[in-house]
């Protein structure tokens, strides 16, 4: 009979070596499910450290199914779980940024706590998820965009997912998505739903060797830059975004958060199509603000105003809509 490994006591912060071994044991099924659940709950109640977050991500990265990406590729995604049920901002941002000429390896999943995740909305707009997964490396090279469906790239999470469901609360694995991109991108714009965690999360990202990135959070607990008020941004590496960002910094107006409230996948997909067809309003401005930040992180634009102008041009001249159509047709 195989002896199961023992996890360290999570009552106090773990040293790097202990954290690395613990998450290796968890992901390689060397620990009982009951021990995993107790460990994750205790970490969450104590509050994870940047070292623990980084080592969990490092362990997940070591076990993923990789995808080759062009130089300078970026990911734009959030941790989710902000409870605001907005339209799919980062999904639209991925299309707009890619239309500006920056390759985007969009890591995402189906909805967990929202009504429509990135995969759900893209599927509703016509992207075949099976085809997009099988052709991700090719579409990233040929079109400059790919959707990296998390379930296809993280087999080690298959055992963890049901444990997380049984726990029924946030754990360290809620933070892993943006830190374990299968394309190993070194530039990222990451939204986190907890402003108080942004600095800690940025420390973890820095430990993982990012080239240039920013962790952003709307002050109302939004996992993206907000057009309803100020947001915070913590820059890492070569990135130098302002630490406090308002819509006015990109030359954009403010909108109440309710103006970008989303619905089911069909509703969000229709809104995304209208956005790409040039519809003005709160959704467009939210996308422009976040695309502007992504373009600054990618080194494409020198500041937020220039980024918003470039993003608006990619929508208004039809490049973003045309890219979506080519992506849907890509085989």
In short:
With 331 residues, this protein is of the alpha/beta class. The protein is built from 14 helices and 7 strands.
Strand sequence of the main sheet, in spatial order?
A: 1-4-5-6-7
Residues in helix, %: 40-55%
Question: Sheet bearing the most strands, described?
Answer: 5 strands, mixed
What separation lies between the terminal Cα atoms?
48 Å
Structural class estimated from helices and strands: alpha/beta
What do you see in this structure?
- With 331 residues, this protein is of the alpha/beta class.
- 44% of the residues lie in helices and 11% in strands.
- It has 14 helices and seven strands.
- Helix 2 packs across helix 9.
- The radius of gyration is 19 Å and the shape is globular.
- It starts with 15 loop residues before the first helix and ends with a helix.
- The model has no long low-confidence stretch (mean pLDDT 94).
């Amino acid at each position: 009979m195989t002896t199961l490994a023992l996890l360290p006591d999570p009552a106090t912060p773990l040293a790097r070596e202990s954290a690395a071994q613990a998450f290796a044991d968890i992901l390689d099924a060397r620990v009982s499910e009951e021990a995993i659940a107790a460990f994750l709950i205790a970490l969450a109640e104590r509050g994870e450290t940047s070292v623990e977050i980084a080592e969990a991500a490092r362990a997940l990265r070591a076990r993923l199914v990789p995808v080759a990406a062009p130089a300078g590729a970026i990911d734009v995604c959030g941790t989710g779980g902000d409870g605001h049920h907005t339209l799919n901002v980062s999904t639209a941002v991925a299309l707009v940024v890619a239309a500006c000429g920056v390759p985007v390896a969009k890591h995402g999943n189906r909805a967990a706590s929202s009504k429509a995740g990135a995969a759900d909305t893209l599927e509703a707009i016509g992207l075949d998820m099976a085809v997009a997964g099988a052709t991700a490396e090719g579409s990233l090279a040929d079109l400059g965009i790919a959707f990296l469906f998390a379930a296809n790239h993280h087999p080690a999470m298959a055992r963890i997912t049901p444990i997380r469901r049984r726990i029924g609360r946030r754990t360290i694995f809620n933070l892993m998505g943006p830190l374990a991109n299968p394309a190993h991108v070194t530039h990222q714009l990451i939204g986190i739903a907890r402003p108080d965690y942004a600095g800690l999360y940025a420390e973890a990202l820095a430990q993982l060797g990012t080239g240039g990135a920013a962790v952003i959070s709307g002050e109302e607990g939004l996992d993206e830059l907000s057009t309803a008020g100020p947001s915070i941004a913590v820059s890492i590496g070569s990135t130098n975004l302002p630490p406090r960002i308002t819509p006015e910094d990109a030359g954009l107006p403010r909108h109440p958060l309710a103006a970008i409230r989303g619905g089911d996948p069909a509703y969000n997909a229709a809104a995304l199509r209208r956005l790409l067809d040039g519809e003005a309003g709160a959704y467009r401005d939210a996308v422009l603000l976040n695309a502007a930040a992504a373009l600054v992180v990618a080194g494409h634009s020198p500041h937020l105003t220039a980024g918003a102008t470039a993003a608006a041009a990619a929508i208004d001249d039809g490049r973003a809509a045309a890219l979506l159509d080519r992506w849907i047709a890509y085989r």
